[in-house]
Give the backbone structure.
Amino acid sequence: MEFIITLLIYIHAFFGGVGLISGTISVSVKKGAINHKRAGKIFSFAMIISSMIALVISNMPQHHNVFLFLIGLFTIYLVLAGNRALTLHHKIKRKADWKDQAISGSMFLISLFMLMLGLLGRQYHFENSILYIFFGGFGLFLTLKDFQTFKRFTKKKNAGLMNHIGRMVGALIASITAFLVAGLHIGTLVVWITPTLIGTAYIIYANKKYNKLKIQTEPS
C-alpha cells in the first residue's frame, strides 16, 4: 500500500510541475495566440490529473487530509470554470447551460462547507481553521461572481473572458502554492495566502487591461 501511495505522490507532483510550467508560459505569452492556447490546454489537463490524484491520496490510510481534499476540489473547479468561461459569449450561446450551473453550484456548496468548518475550527481550535475561512470565503466570492456573469454575459462585453482569466490564474496560484508548501515544505500561513493575494492583484490588472478589448473567444 505504501508503495502505491508513494507512486501516486510522485505522479501527482509530476503533473503539478507540468501545470506550474505550462501555466506560467500561458500567462507570459500573448493572450489568444497559439502558444497561449497550447500551454493553456496542457495546463488544464495537468492540473485536473494532479488534483484528482490528490483527492485519492488525501483519503488513503495515514494520509487523510480534509483540507487538501477540499483544495483539490477547489482547483478542479477553477480549471473547469475557467475553460467553460470561454463559452460565455453572445456569439456562442444566449445563456449559461447546465454544465456551467453545475460546476459553480457544486463549488458554492463546497465553499459553504469550508467556511462552516473554518468558523467551527476557530471556536474549537482546529488546525488550519483560518485557511478554511479564507478559501471558503474566496470560493463563495468566485461562485457568486459566476452566477452574476451567467445573468449578464450577453450584455456585458468580455464578461466570459474576465471569468476565464480569473479562474485560470486562480488555478495557477494553486499550483504555485502547492509547490511552495509540498515541494519546498514551507507551510506557513503567509505562504498559503500570499500567492492568492498576488494573483488577485494580477487579475485586477488584467481585467482593466482587457476589459476594453474586443476579443473573440471560441468554445473549448
In short: DSSP finds seven helices and no strands in the chain. Residues 214-220 have pLDDT under 50 and may be disordered. The radius of gyration is 17 Å. The CA atoms of residues 173 and 199 lie 6 Å apart.
